[in-house]
């Protein structure tokens, strides 16, 4: 019952907030503002457009009053009414509805004595009743919101008080712009604030934004430049800068502004510096910031839009019917009035029954007819089924209630059920003809599971792991089955999900969390103990079942050959280590370190595991460090990029400055400074030692194999390490490496520590990271190998790319070269096999460089980085120089598992005559494999592949395919009759099942005006269509095209931000609340947690809703028009 | 905060029959056979009832005599409102060819009198008619008060336009002996009308009960003098008045006027022979181009002489059968085709 209100409020907010929005929709270039930095004359002009934040402190009192005083405080009020304005405002809103207005019109008409038909009081009754009921409902709803607001407003946070000169507890509602706030780990951020201090030595703060966008991985935020170096907490009293930033807007991914120190020096601010209201501080002991947006001006609140309002097809038809009724009514009344007039005028005398006016005179026939018209409108008002609208709304609310309380839509893992965000289109669910589906995360789980690998030409198929996964699935499906009985479901939830899993972890396996839900739960459930946090994160990211990998026995055998002696060639007694073993070691090291995974231990409040200086050399004297910096300052940007793995943004004029500031955290990495880097592991020793918890000694001999070890507090065990990766593939590979006791223990911008069972802890010095990008389709890390002290490049990337970069001539001689070629061929075979099974493949390769080579490359890379013109190309070129002459180590096959029940659902939908299109950004092979796996395509389907380079070719190809289809289809009935005489003729479209596969480039041609018709005709004849490598825009264009040209009901389903446009364009948009955040859900009309729920949603609920509603509408017309 | 987190613990919906829409429900499965037999049966029923009704209506004897033209001189007299106090009598002889057995009812019938006009229907005061407040004349405008402001009782256009002809039926045994046919003027109203909806104000003396009110402008006498013969039949509970006040739905209507008192010659009913109506012509119909008639009729179990109900049943039955046959034809054809395909 809450949604219509939210909808109303949403519209209200849009009405009232119109002025606001104009502000931030106005395009302006902030970079231009930054470009003319230093010219203070610019500032006053911009003051109106932007917001100036002055610290809420004594010395700035006047200025504070001037600027920040006018900004709203942090009190939020989501209620619509107050006690005083409830009645007038509620009435005002209710009379926005046409139905109520019509009622009102009739009541007023009835008050006119000339046309009065019924008693005035009686006609008022229904209107009054309806208005009262709705007003009571609104009032209750608002009261509930008021209580919730109060609860949130009275949450407590630590705010710096200028009187007491320390942080004091204060309610959220009393926080104002310019306040300094200090937050500890796991606390919820009360308002949008700029991060000024973090206990993290690197000035990084981790936040969890699951409440905001649903993404459950941690995000990093950066302390404002210039404050990072401060060893102690920023003293608010000494803070004398002012912040100028853009006006409040709802773009979560944008924040622009600068911080102006008292000496007019400016520091740019971006979204990396902003902590958003509603997020939770994680992994960081304490942070401090200054509030820039509060209350309703925070980005979280501005993003809080209500449900969507769509009008269903049925309702549109009912509307036209109602209009017909209105027409009929007018005609009837006109006829009546005319007839009355004519009839009256026929009498010469005044008959008895034509009674005169009260004052005695007799009205003329014309006037009599006119009065009769209005009287008849009142009398025949029932002809218009105005109650239909109220009834439809109530029935739809009921339908939504029933949909939402369907047990079958409940997903235990996420503790979520279906959400109906749009209230008006339940019956459209039953009318869907075309279904557009995303692949990743929608059909598949988007939980990457390591399935197979091929190392040094040998395929390790991990049968045990496969078995374990199967048994897990069975166990899961058993659970599903028993969940249908009410008694069983609850007990099952608490039970560990997979008894067959032999790996037991410390954390509860069920991973049912309440924490990563949305909405109010989130906002309030923040202060809950830290123990709950890791579970939720695991649940969101990957359940233990998926992360654990059972090692392949053959591969384990080979591991047993690994001994530390392998790397000590001085020992002459041992023969040269077998090459394969070296490959295996390198392969797993590459898996473990060639990524940007962040390591955290879930059980501790201080979760970040940094490498302490204990491992390094004693700290050099300050002198030395200084000189080191001076020498390094020449090569500003050769530092490894930040732990976030992102290069400083390019193209921005101030990138240079940002890089300068990075310098302070820079590591001496160039070969020239080799000796220094060897000796000074931690140039910023002061920062490290300032944080005692961080300098915890790593227990390097943790028994990794024994996952059952109780976790001792304060000691992160391998099994309890949490890996947070930007993409699930990376995490899957790191977990796979861990299964082979090659555990990624920690990662800092300077070094990576890997615990390799047989070799002990290895500390790799990170020299460089070339992050993944979609052009290169690979990423590389450059490290110094701790044992051999060589510079090694580990590269991981798409097979097609890596294969081209392999070294043609091996430096080690022709024998090895031959071996490499063999290896290459074998690996390629394995890769082909993997692809056929629908696995995502990655190749791993390495390259050993000499120091001089590396130095040479580094020099060129600097040039590329510092160049201003075509920097991108130069960087790409530079990467190409590094990533060549690679030695292939092996390949991995990662499975993106199909979601449970997907093939069955697709089959059911197919049977129901719904055409299913799969639109994905993945490459063709993967997409087709998944399409086969989920029964979108049947093995005996005829596939047509549209893959052309030019428009003409595309047209030709479509022509031929169409001809072929046309040739086959008329034949098909005859075929059917010849094949099966005793069967009734099949519907024409199932005569020949054809699948169409089209890739992004061809799709572009097909979507052009001239080919649209042909493409649609072709697509309409095909049973299933797969569009691969499609961009989000293309996805939405396809949906739009089909919807508008074929005039069909379309449904789009997706889970990620790339599906949002498609979801919005379709008649019915469905979001899957899963891994990729909440954007899709926010844009959707219905949100479900798994694809399999779609079949019941469409085929059962959609059908019910449609038949029931249409029957009701028909009955209403029957009742009102036939029997007024 | 604690409480909140508990609320969020599980969103598993209730697994109750209501919420899962699993309550027992019965849905009619319509098959061709069921529909066809249903239509057939309905048709049979309607036709049967229609035939019975028509037959029973045929047995009714009815005599209708339109006296608009026959009393043309009186009609002319009434056209001029100035002659309202001049009495005009008119005798209409007629011959009854066969005896009307059983109860015989006498009606007056008006043509073209729109008693169904909306504002006409409302022009009455129910609180006055039920006797609670004689002076309540709220909805009666313009027949609310007389020129000098005295409230009219009974007020309103309906009462004012009351049918005021008197009709006396006499039986001519021979040319010299005219027997006045005994008629009862009571028992011609609905019970609820007579005893619930219409009540005289509670006073000892009826005329004092109507004190302070005046008669409707068209009436010759006040309400408490409507029936000179029976003092209990005066005021608002006068039978003729009550019958008139129940407005008719169509412009042509007949209202019950008297019923035969079966005594002496008339115990069997009205014997065949020559009769005459002696009508005191008061009600002007020329003003609205109407006509008036007097009707003698018997009744059967199925009501009056109207064929309407019987015809309606017949038509419905016929249409249903038509539908049945057309559907049967379609069904058979489809079945044939299906068989054809199956054979293929």
TrEMBL record, chain A:
Q: Which EC number applies?
A: 7.6.2.1
Q: Which UniProt keywords apply?
A: ATP-binding, Endoplasmic reticulum, Magnesium, Membrane, Metal-binding, Nucleotide-binding, Translocase, Transmembrane, Transmembrane helix
From which domain of life does this come? Eukaryota
Q: Which residues form the active site?
A: 438 (4-aspartylphosphate intermediate)
Where in the numbering of this chain does the P-type ATPase C-terminal domain appear? 1081-1121
Q: What class of enzyme is it?
A: translocase
Gene Ontology BP term (one): phospholipid translocation
The residues that hold Mg(2+) are: 438, 440, 1055, 1059
Name the SUPFAM superfamilies on file: Calcium ATPase, transduction domain A, Calcium ATPase, transmembrane domain M, HAD-like, Metal cation-transporting ATPase, ATP-binding domain N
Give the reactions, separated by semicolons, that this protein catalyses.
a beta-D-glucosyl-(1<->1')-N-acylsphing-4-enine(out) + ATP + H2O = a beta-D-glucosyl-(1<->1')-N-acylsphing-4-enine(in) + ADP + phosphate + H(+); ATP + H2O + phospholipidSide 1 = ADP + phosphate + phospholipidSide 2
Q: Where is this region: Disordered?
A: 472-497, 668-705, 968-988
What GO molecular function annotation could you give as one example from this UniProt entry?
magnesium ion binding
* Classification via InterPro entries: ATPase_P-typ_cyto_dom_N (IPR023299), ATPase_P-typ_P_site (IPR018303), ATPase_P-typ_TM_dom_sf (IPR023298), ATPase_P-typ_transduc_dom_A_sf (IPR008250), HAD-like_sf (IPR036412), HAD_sf (IPR023214), P-type_ATPase_IV (IPR006539), P-type_ATPase_N (IPR032631)
| Residues of the P-type ATPase N-terminal domain | 66-123
**Entry's Gene Ontology cellular component terms:** endoplasmic reticulum membrane; phospholipid-translocating ATPase complex; plasma membrane
Q: Which PANTHER family does this chain map to?
A: PHOSPHOLIPID-TRANSPORTING ATPASE VD, PROBABLE PHOSPHOLIPID-TRANSPORTING ATPASE
- The protein's name in its UniProt record: Phospholipid-transporting ATPase
From TrEMBL, chain B:
GO CC terms: endoplasmic reticulum; Golgi apparatus; plasma membrane
InterPro entries named in the record: CDC50/LEM3_fam (IPR005045)
**By its UniProt entry, which Pfam families does this protein fall under?**
CDC50 (PF03381)
Q: Which domain of life is it from?
A: Eukaryota
- Cell compartment(s), UniProt: Membrane
- So where does this one cross the membrane? 35-57, 307-330
Q: GO terms for biological process?
A: phospholipid translocation
Q: Which family does it belong to?
A: Belongs to the CDC50/LEM3 family.
Name of this protein: Cell cycle control protein
Q: Which organism is it from?
A: Physeter macrocephalus
* Originating gene: LOC102975454
């Amino acid at each position: 019952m809450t949604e219509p209100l939210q909808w109303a409020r949403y519209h209200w907010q849009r009405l009232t907030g119109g002025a606001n929005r104009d502000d931030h929709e106005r395009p302006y270039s902030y970079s231009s503002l930054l470009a003319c930095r230093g010219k203070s004359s610019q500032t006053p002009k911009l003051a109106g457009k932007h917001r100036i934040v002055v610290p809420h402190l004594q010395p700035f009192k006047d200025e504070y009053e001037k600027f920040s005083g006018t900004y709203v405080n942090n009190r939020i009020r989501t209620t619509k009414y107050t006690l005083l304005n409830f009645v007038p405002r509620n009435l005002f809103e209710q009379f926005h509805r046409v139905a109520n207005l019509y009622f009102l019109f009739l009541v007023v008409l009835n008050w006119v004595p000339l046309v009065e038909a019924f008693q005035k009081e009686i006609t008022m009754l229904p209107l009054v009743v309806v208005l009262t009921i709705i007003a009571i409902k609104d009032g209750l709803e608002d009261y509930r919101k008021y209580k919730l607001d109060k609860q949130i407003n009275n949450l407590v946070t630590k705010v710096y008080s200028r009187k007491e000169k320390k942080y004091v507890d204060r309610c959220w509602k009393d926080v104002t712009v310019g306040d300094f706030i200090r937050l500890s780990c796991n606390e919820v951020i009360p308002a949008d604030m700029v991060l000024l201090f973090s206990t993290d030595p690197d000035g990084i703060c981790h936040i969890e934004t699951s409440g905001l966008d649903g993404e459950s991985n941690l995000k990093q935020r950066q302390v404002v430049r210039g404050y990072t170096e401060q060893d102690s907490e920023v003293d608010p009293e000494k803070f004398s800068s002012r912040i100028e930033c853009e006006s409040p807007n709802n773009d979560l991914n944008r924040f622009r502004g600068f911080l102006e120190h008292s000496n007019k020096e400016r520091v740019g601010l971006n979204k990396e510096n902003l902590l958003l209201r509603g997020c939770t501080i994680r992994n960081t002991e304490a942070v401090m910031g200054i509030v820039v947006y509060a209350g309703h001006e925070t980005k979280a609140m501005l993003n809080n839009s209500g449900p969507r309002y769509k009008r269903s097809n049925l309702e549109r038809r009912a509307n036209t019917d109602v209009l017909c009724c209105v027409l009929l009514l007018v005609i009837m009344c006109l006829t009546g009035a005319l007839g009355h007039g004519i009839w009256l005028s026929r009498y010469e005398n005044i008959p008895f029954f034509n009674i005169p006016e009260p004052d005695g005179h007799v009205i003329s026939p014309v006037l009599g007819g006119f009065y009769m018209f209005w009287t008849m409108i009142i009398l025949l008002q029932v002809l218009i089924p105005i109650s239909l609208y109220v009834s439809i709304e109530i029935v739809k609310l009921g339908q939504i209630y029933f949909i939402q309380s369907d047990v079958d839509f409940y997903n235990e893992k996420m503790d979520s059920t279906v959400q109906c965000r749009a209230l008006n289109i339940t019956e459209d669910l039953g009318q869907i003809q075309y279904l557009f589906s995303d692949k990743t995360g929608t059909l598949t789980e988007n939980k990457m599971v390591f399935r197979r690998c091929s190392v040094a030409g040998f395929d390790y198929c991990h049968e045990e792991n496969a078995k374990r996964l199967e048994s897990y699935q069975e166990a899961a499906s058993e659970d599903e089955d028993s969940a249908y009985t009410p008694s069983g479901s609850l007990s099952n939830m608490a039970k560990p999900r997979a008894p067959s899993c032999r790996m037991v972890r410390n954390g509860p396996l069920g991973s049912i969390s309440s924490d990563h839900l949305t909405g109010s739960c989130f906002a309030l459930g923040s202060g809950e103990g830290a123990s709950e946090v890791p579970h939720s994160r695991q649940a969101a990211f990957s359940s233990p079942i998926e992360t654990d990998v059972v090692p392949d026995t053959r591969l384990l055998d080979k591991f047993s050959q690994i001994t530390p002696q392998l790397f000590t060639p001085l020992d002459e007694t041992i023969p040269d280590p077998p090459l394969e073993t070296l490959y295996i070691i390198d392969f797993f090291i590459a898996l473990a370190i060639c990524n940007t995974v962040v390591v955290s231990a879930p059980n501790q409040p201080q979760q970040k595991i940094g490498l302490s200086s204990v491992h390094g050399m004693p700290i050099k004297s300050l002198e030395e460090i200084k000189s080191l910096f001076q020498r390094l300052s020449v090569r500003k940007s050769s530092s490894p990029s930040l732990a976030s793995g992102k290069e400083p943004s390019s193209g921005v004029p101030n990138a240079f400055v940002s890089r300068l500031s990075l310098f302070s955290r820079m590591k001496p990495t160039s070969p020239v400074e080799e000796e220094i880097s060897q000796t000074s592991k931690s140039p910023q020793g002061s920062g490290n030692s300032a944080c005692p918890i961080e300098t915890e000694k790593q227990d390097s001999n943790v028994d990794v194999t024994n996952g059952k070890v109780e976790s001792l507090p304060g000691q992160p065990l391998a099994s309890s390490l949490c890996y947070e990766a930007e993409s699930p593939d990376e995490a899957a590979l790191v977990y796979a490496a861990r299964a082979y006791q090659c555990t990624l223990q920690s990662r800092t911008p300077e070094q990576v520590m890997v615990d390799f069972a047989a070799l002990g802890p290895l500390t790799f010095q990170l020299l460089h990271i070339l992050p993944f990008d979609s052009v290169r389709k690979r990423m590389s890390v450059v490290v110094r190998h701790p044992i051999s002290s060589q510079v090694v490049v580990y590269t991981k990337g798409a097979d097609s790319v890596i294969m081209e970069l392999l070294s043609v001539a091996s430096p080690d001689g022709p024998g090895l070269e031959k071996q490499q070629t063999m290896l290459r061929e074998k690996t390629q075979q394995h890769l082909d096999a993997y692809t056929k099974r629908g696995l995502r493949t990655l190749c791993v390769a390495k390259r050993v460089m000499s120091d001089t080579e590396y130095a040479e490359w580094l020099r060129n890379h600097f040039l590329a980085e510092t160049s201003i013109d075509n920097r991108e190309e130069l960087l790409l070129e530079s990467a190409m120089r590094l990533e060549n002459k690679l030695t292939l180590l092996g390949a991995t096959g990662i499975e993106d598992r199909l979601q449970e029940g997907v093939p069955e659902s697709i089959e059911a939908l197919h049977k129901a005559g719904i055409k299913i299109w799969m639109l994905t950004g993945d490459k063709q092979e993967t997409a087709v494999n998944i399409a086969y796996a989920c029964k979108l395509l049947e093995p005996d389907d005829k596939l047509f592949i549209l893959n052309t380079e030019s428009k003409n070719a595309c047209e030709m190809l479509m022509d031929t395919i169409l001809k072929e289809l046309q040739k086959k289809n008329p034949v098909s009935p005859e075929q059917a009759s010849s094949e099966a005489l005793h069967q009734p003729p099949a519907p024409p479209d199932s005569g020949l099942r054809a699948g169409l596969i089209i890739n992004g480039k061809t799709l572009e041609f097909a979507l052009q005006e001239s080919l649209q018709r042909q493409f649609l005709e072709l697509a309409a004849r095909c049973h299933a269509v797969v569009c691969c490598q499609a961009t989000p825009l293309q996805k939405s264009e396809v949906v739009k095209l089909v919807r508008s040209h074929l005039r069909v009901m379309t449904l789009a389903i997706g889970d990620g931000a790339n599906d949002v446009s498609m979801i919005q364009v379709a008649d019915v948009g469905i979001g899957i609340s899963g891994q990729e955040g909440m954007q899709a859900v926010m844009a959707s009309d219905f949100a479900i947690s798994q694809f399999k729920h779609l079949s019941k949603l469409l085929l059962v609920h959609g059908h019910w809703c449609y038949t029931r509603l249409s029957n009701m509408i028909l009955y209403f017309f029957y009742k009102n028009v036939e029997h007024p | 905060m604690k409480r909140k987190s508990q609320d969020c613990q599980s969103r598993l919906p209730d697994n109750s029959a209501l919420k899962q829409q699993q309550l027992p429900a019965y849905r009619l499965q319509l098959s061709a056979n069921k529909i066809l037999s249903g239509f057939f049966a309905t048709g049979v029923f309607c036709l049967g009832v229609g035939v019975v009704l028509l037959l029973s209506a045929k047995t009714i004897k009815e005599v209708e005599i339109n006296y608009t033209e026959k009393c043309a001189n009186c009609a002319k007299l009434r056209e001029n409102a100035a002659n309202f106090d001049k009495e005009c009598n008119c005798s209409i002889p007629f011959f009854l060819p066969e005896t009307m057995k059983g109860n015989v009812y006498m009606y007056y019938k008006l043509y073209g009198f729109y008693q169904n006009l909306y504002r006409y229907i409302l022009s009455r005061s129910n609180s006055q008619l039920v006797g609670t407040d004689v002076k309540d004349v709220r909805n009666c405008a313009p027949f609310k008060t007389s020129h000098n402001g005295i409230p009219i009782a009974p007020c309103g256009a309906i009462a004012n336009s009351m049918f005021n002809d008197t009709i006396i039926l006499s039986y001519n045994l021979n040319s010299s002996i005219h027997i006045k046919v005994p008629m009862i003027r009571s028992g011609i109203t609905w019970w609820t009308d007579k005893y619930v909806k219409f009540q005289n104000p509670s006073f000892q003396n009826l005329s004092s009960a109507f004190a302070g009110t005046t008669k409707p402008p068209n009436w010759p006498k006040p309400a408490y003098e409507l029936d000179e013969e029976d003092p209990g039949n005066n005021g608002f509970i006068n039978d003729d008045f009550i019958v008139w006040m129940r407005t008719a739905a169509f412009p042509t209507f007949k209202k019950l006027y008297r019923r035969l008192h079966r005594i002496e010659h008339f115990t069997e009913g009205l014997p065949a022979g020559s009769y005459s109506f002696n009508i005191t012509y008061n009600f002007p119909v020329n003003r609205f181009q109407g006509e008036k008639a007097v009707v003698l009729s018997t009744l059967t179990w199925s009501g009056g002489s109207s064929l309407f109900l019987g015809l309606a049943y017949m038509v419905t039955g016929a249409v249903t059968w038509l539908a049945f046959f057309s559907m049967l034809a379609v069904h058979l054809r489809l079945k044939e085709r299906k068989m054809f395909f199956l054979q293929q």
